User: Fold these one by one.
Assistant:
Number 1:
Amino acid sequence: MAQTPSSEARAGLKLISPTAIYVILLLAVPLATVLLYSVLTGGRGTVGLPLTGENYAELWSKPVYGYIMLKSLLVALTVTAITVLLAYPVAYFVSFHVKPERKSLWLFLITIPFWTSYIIRVSLWFVILGYGGVLDSTLASIGLPPLNVASYSILSIIIVLAHAYAPFAVLPIFVSLEKVDRSLLEAGQDLGESRWVTFLRVTLPLSMPGVIAATLIVFIPTVGDYVTPELVGDGKEPMIANLIETQLLKLRNFAQGSAFAVASMLMVGVVSLIFVLLNRRFIGGQK
Amino acid sequence: MTFSDDRPTMIEFKDVHKYYGDYHALRGINGTIKAGEFFSLLGPSGCGKTTLLRTIAGFEDISSGVVMIDGKDAAGMPANVRPTNMVFQSYAIFPHMSVAENVGFGLRKDPRSKEEKAKAVAEALEMVGLKGYGNRAAHALSGGQRQRVALARALILKPKVLLLDEPLSALDKKMREHMQVELIKLQRQVGITFILVTHDQEEALVMSDRIAVMFEGEIAQLADPETLYRRPATRKVADFIGTMNFIPAEILSEAGDKVEVDAKGLGRVALDISQAPAKTGETPVVGLRPETLTLLYDDQKPTERETDGVIDEVIYFGDMTYYDVYLGGTDVEVRLSMRNVPGRPVLDVGTKVRVAWSPSALVLFR
């Protein structure tokens, strides 16, 4: 019955081959194409030789591109910070204060926003934040001036994104908190620390892997989010994804669009790498 | 062996009750633990011994009664200000810290300088036999080493009471026996009160000055190990501590400080009243430890009393042999233990033997 490691490895390869082929065709090939296009000479709807660095030079030459990229980065970081900061207490509450038999119900409830299409959720934010919306009419009823949040595109983008990604942040933090041995918290108090200091010295550091996972899960997709700025900001505040869309679909300059895409990937890659290194520091101290 | 009564009281329980919903976990605990004592809470799982320990540590609120620690009512005193420190069953070593950081965890508010604290940590590690382990990652330690770290981490704070929640249960037998001796030595060295929770009666007997045996949320007997072993207060305690033979008996008379009984297979015996603990309303039985019964070889004379018997079972242990013997032509079977010394052959099943016993070793439960 015993299988040699190599036959086991072969069986394993066979098992993952459909997925592997799928990943290669739909991820590696397009990625390679984008990388290649970004160094080709682009025309309207065409790409061709010779190889050139002009697409990247274009990116550097116009400050507007740098501004949009920086803005995307800052919006994504703000959204990530808000989401993770708001998700942590929720995850903490479910992990520490909800009875074990109720926890799965709570997690289920947290995922309820996913039951509705994202477009509908964004539209509903208009009803809340928009001109004459729920927020402003409530303020008006108690005699306060309207805020008209929807007219501040970046603020609305941040609010909508932070809400949309909240469940993604709650789950990894919850999992890492669940793994914290409760006797460690008693030990912290037994050794003379208050609940709050025990949280800071024991619970928080032990849940950092979950916090960093949540950060990555929220940060990576929000940098490249296309739908939200398009709908919420009326396209007035384009983000990097909108820039790429304009190049690829409207101007049909595949080479330039690919260069933007690669630049955006590099940016995400660098920031993610920082988080991964931070994560390793925390994981390194644990089993 | 008895613990001196003139020592000051460290912990005092006054009618302590604890309910978890409808479940009555502690049912009127009374008793005192003396300063500098090695005290054990012994009992089967679910008897409330860990709950009682946690009420001392401050992790459980009691439903009624009073817990006094060093003369102060502990009610409303949170765990972090109590003069107690605990070695947890799981050791609760912080996995994200080094050994030295673990041991120094409780020193944050200590006014001493960084260097002095580091020195204290090194000394604590040396005391538990982990000199030079400070920089190791806590997760890289073995079970025995974790336990030592947990000990050092608690003792460095110089608590008045050290609480140990089944600290040896996760260790293998050799390591456990080794740590038992180390803990006794450590307790003598630091001189503070140790309160040990255990379900292992042998461990409790070996280590403790006094033991509280608990069943179903009550203390069944609180005594020094020898009293507990030789004069258990109830049949249940006798059964829990070591092995005891129970022989049906009839009480013939009780006058002054003498009780006369007729024990099946042993005959009439006059017992001192000290051998008959307070009545609990059980059917009367007399108890005899296996080692108080002796097989007589050849023409050996009994020192006190002698009864005939037939060997029913032989259990060979190397240094010892256990015999199950029917007493005096009855269906009463007792287990007795004999040390295997030269000139004392192991006997076969069915051998007719003479069994010597001493009336003073009997305990009457009624």
Note: The mean pLDDT of chain A is 83.
Number 2:
Amino acid sequence: MKKIIAAIVFAFLSVYTNAQTSVGTPPVTTDLMRSNGKILVVVAVIVIIMIGFFGYLISVDKKLTKLEKEGIK
Amino acid sequence: MLRAYWWKILCFVLVMYVCIFGFYVEVPRMDDRMQQTIRNFFFHVPMWFGMMILLTVSLVYAIKYLGNPTPKNDFYATSYAATGTLFGFVGIVTGAVWANYQWGQPWNNDPKQIGAAVALLIYLAYFVLRGSLNDEEKRARISAVYNIFAFFMLFPTLWILPRLTESLHPGGQGSAGNPGINGKDLDWRLRIVFYPAVIGWTLLGVWITTLKIRLQILIEKHS
């Protein structure tokens, strides 16, 4: 368990160092969203899609729970 | 399991972690054959792992049904089979997209592609079989037996035959080991995203399945 946590923590450390190296190079890449070939824009799109899907799942889940508790009228 | 929510939170956290960090983790370059497409490893491959897990759960409930024929066991078996098949279809389509850019065309008649297609057709026949029977008990019993047959057809089609011939997929003849979980070959940077991805995507499948089961139980209660 400790090893897994450590692995995740150290993995995120590399994100930090990446951000450090890109600051020194062309001035365009100082913006986080425009760094690393704008890959974070794709990440943002996917995150929005997945949040949408999860939101939908949660809402269906809640409706079902309500029906199970109250019964269908 | 049906209404507990801690694993739904875990599912959300893991899938979000994969969707964010899966794009940001530095992937091994090898000889640059794969370039960035190796990131599909966090999305395409877990579909097959998830399918295998969901179909195994379906098998367990099919066997349970034969021992204890309650509608509940039948709901579980069919719902898990449905989600498993869905994962398989998503896997085959995402594989076609990947293959188009990695191997030149979407369908290469690769032994694993053909095997996966055969396995999915066998599971499609499961739903056709169910649809063709009107008597509820008979439908449940026959489909439970067919489910067991279909599950064991996964082994030759997905696990054995693709390894006996040359394959574009890793793990074919001449390349040792199990693609995906081969501990020695897999770069640790891929591993820290891949294993959470398998758990996260599978839990997502389980979530969808439990919704389906609950709906079926509600309908049964009401009718």
Note: The two ends of chain B are 25 Å apart (CA to CA).
Number 3:
Amino acid sequence: MAKIHVSTTVNGDAVEFLCNPGETLLDILRNDLQLTGTKEGCGSGDCGACSITVDDRLVCSCLVLAVEAEGKAIGTIEGVADKDQLNVIQQKFLEHAALQCGICTPGLIVSVQALLKENPEPTEEEARYYLAGNLCRCTGYDKIIRAVLDAAETMRGAA
Amino acid sequence: MKNNNEAIAADNYKYIGTRSIRPDGFEKVTGRANYGADLSLPGMIWGKMLRSPHAHAMIKNIDTSRAEALAGVMAIVTYDDFPGVSSEIVAAGEGTEDLLDLARNLMADGKVLYHGHAILGVAAISKQIAEQALELIDIDYDILPAVLDVRDAMAKDAPILHQTMFTKGLSETPTTPSNVASVVELKKGDILAGFAQADIVIEREFYTPTVHQGYIEPHACTVRYDEHGQSMVWCSTQGHFDVRSTTAKLLHMSLSKLKVIASEIGGGFGGKTTVYLEPVALLMSKKTGRPVKMLMDRDEVFKASGPGSATRNWIKVGARNDGTITAMQGKLHYEAGAFKGSPARLGGMTAFTPYDVENMFVECFDVVVNKPKVAAYRAPGAPQAEYAAEMIISELAARLEIDPIDFRLQNVAKEGTKTIYGPKLKKVGLVECLEAAKNSPHYQQPLKDNQGRGVSSGFWFNIGGSSSVTLNMNRDGTGTIVEGSPDIGGSRASMQLMAAETLGIAADNFKTVVADTENIAHNDGTGGSRTTFATGMAVVEAAKDVIRQMKSRAASVWSVEVDTIDWVDGVAINIDSTEKLSAAEICATADRTGGQISGQGNINARGAGPSFAVHICDVEVDKETGKVDVVRYTAIQDAGKAIHPSYVEGQYQGGAAQGIGWALNEEYVYNDKGILQNPGFLDYRIPLASDLPMIETVIVEVPNPAHPFGVRGVGETGIIPPLAATAYAVSDAINAPITDLPCSPPNVLAVIQANS
Amino acid sequence: MPIVDYKVPVSVDEAVIMLKGCNTAVKILAGGTDLIIQSKPAGSDPLTVVDIKSIDSMMTASIDDEGLTLGPAMSCAELTARDDIKSVYPGLIEAAYLIGSTQVQGRASIGGNLSNASPAADTIPALIAIGARCIIAGPDGERVVAVEDFVVGVGKNCMAQGELLKSIQVPPPEAKTSDAYLRFIPRTEMDIAVAGAGVSITMDSEGVCTAARIAIGAVAVTALLVPAAAAALVGSKLEESALQAAAAAASAASKPISDRRGTADYRRHVVGVLVKRAVSIAAQRAQEQ
């Protein structure tokens, strides 16, 4: 079985890789591109730990074939901060202690970024439903939702 | 007392009680932090376990020839590759484990005991080839009937899991093997006399299902065996020293030949206090000479890592008409899974401890069934037993027409109350928690139609144990706290704050490092809510050691006796001359005054403070479908002292959410053959962001006299009260008794229909 | 490795040729949220996937006087953002919105939901209720199949190898007609339907129901159109007795199983509750027109 050559961009960088046709984008990101910030919690789209964006659309990278990345723009947690300057969402997660173990955090931050791009002023309920696919077992979500609403407010203020 | 996520200040600390940014936060919000699955090594190969498709079967024959012929397969390991295992009790997690059971759980020894039980491991050059190879292994089974519930397991002609297991704790030595591993009795007073004094007695049997800790990170490790030098294990664990000791014991290695590095850990809740992969991966590495990586898939986590016990607990409580409880009795049956060792006894010790009642009697049964071997799950054993007890307490209060908080206050455990397990309680904060609950805005809020309210207390011991900390001072006066407790929820930040408070140096001057097994002395695992208590105490000891050294250096600089030196806000002061030397100045010149400064705090912490909690839950029930929505929730708990209030609140909220999940929707569903039907997050339904309201918290602070800052430990207690608080709220909303969890829509509708 | 080949046609004709000419088992890839999970087991047969997302007509939707023409591979996220479609078929959009998480909606498509033919698929009862039809392209030309006939069993649709769901068409609704879809799940999100109900209701100016289509999901091997439930409503003013009769008819028509998501009895009961509630929502929407 011949490997397929894929040209794509990841966090703005032009990237090329070889993959088997059945390999998931998650496996390529983690094992071939060493972008281990994207986490695997379930491999079936039920936990959101592997959330990334493909052409600005939020998806689970465990449910995307790597070959489908051809010509697309991939966004991962590694591209959220501007060098060492944290994004507002990341900063608010820290200020609100919105993480305990931190395994769901990269996927959540990518998802929150997508949420606030689509809806800069979400209600608590809208935020909770948008993020229902990002499981967190540590926090009970309270501080995550507070961080999201605070980040949204801060970003609106800055805009 | 202030509400709404504000701590109650009991003292006047400078750093403790502030909400500092956790020192490992940057790595964790940028994806740079490395977890169990994130390490790859040059030349690394992949291992996968073959798991039993049956719940109970003898293995008649294993044929691996087709798999071995597959290109890329490098080794197959089985139970026979262990270098000889005998029964021996070893420390593991919060308790002990039998090494023989541990080995037989890692890979079956001729008999599989649950669906998903590991049988052998395959190592191959890629994960895909390892998975393909598993399909090429042929096993002949002799399928045996499965026992899936304590009732079946204890029935007269039940299939026996272990022919060598005889019930311990019986008055007469048994002559036939049994699925009951042990029976333990706990008592105080005279239970019969207690019930004789009662005007009202309620008894019921309660069921709680098998539940999983549900950490989002599956078990994972990368290992390298080195016959001549030092072998290495990188893994996600709550206790890397325990991984080292059990693995070394199984593989007949000395501790110095095995280094275990704790990766960042993506949740554990007790479930990562034992080993499932690491010794097998090392066997693979030994056979192949290559580093080996093993990752569990999510379905393997559910099928084969330790869940929490399902239970059938019968509780009987008697009270006088004036509200005085006279007797509390329980008969507790805990599923251990395939091997002995359920927390039945801990259930017995905790069930009635929130109450000061003269007469108590509990029998605790540890029962094996054809399900995965249970592991610790946040306050192991307590939620199930306290759920049953608290449901009866709430029902009694209703029958006596006494406010449920007043009823609890009337019978409350307090300093001096003798526990069923022996010692008297020292200073505890249950009265304060109940009063805070009663005064909370939540408790004052009236309910709407179809809503109900539940209140529950919860008790957990918390533990101390062995912790070792080194505090290395740098030449610029900053410091590195080297600890050995994996940071599962922000404990690095607490360590910083305690070092800062002790030394009088601002917290951001300290870096906290979780060291591997060769860079710090032994530490017990992160469990039992012990880290901030015990490791925190070790940090304080190390910081005091640093102060002693700093003072002695200052004394030598000034050529005075050390007892003329005072230490204030990070500065040494000569009381006689008011000369001053800051920590930075002392550190900068340390080479000239006797070498670099490093403090040591190696302790075995005693006196962990029990913690009590009280939760209030309001639910709304859709009476046509049985669906339950949690509409308001408040968690109140005695922290002793909240070092970092945000992470204390986080523990309360997270415990509440897990407990709500346990109460409402979480359960292992097996078919009658013992095959797990829901090994994934799709159908093992943990709470989602959209399922929960904000979880209000009240931090009560009744300091623990045994800790320098009053810490009790906060991690576990919060999962105990939600079960009864939530289930009783449902019961209140539908005006019918709930006994069985979960309160899933079909179960609740069935209760509604049966009572209408 | 079960997926051994990956093809990307840019037209329906090219896709049909690829599908027909394949020498392994072949599956059509749209959002992949079912396909990629199903193809994971190491032991399954070699599979070629044909990714139809580069065919423009598969990825667009249009609504006009002729009704709705829906590209089957368009993601639910794109579809649910279409207010023009939502204003006419709110029930269909509700169903699309309920499929999985935000992440899953970024990929999952209505054509995939339909073709995957899960008994619990949310969009199937919603599509049946509004009378949607499948346009199937194949080597011998096109054919048209009603959605209720498209799904033939658990995981089975009526297409032969070489055929492709080209578009989904929905006729324009009559005046004062609207739809609704409700499903029951244990949590608020992320679960598979325990039962589902898609309804379309037409009202007259007197508040009398003049036409109805009731479809139920997750209570039989395929979604079911329940004419008896509709008959119980037509001619009534949707009084409680009519709603109860429709609910009873839906419960009676269902043939559910017991599994990890609910018992047969529970499903039979809940599907009636959903029908009752969905009818009230759709009727109110119809009357507000």
Note: Strands of chain A lie at 4-10, 13-19, 51-54, 57-60, 73-75.
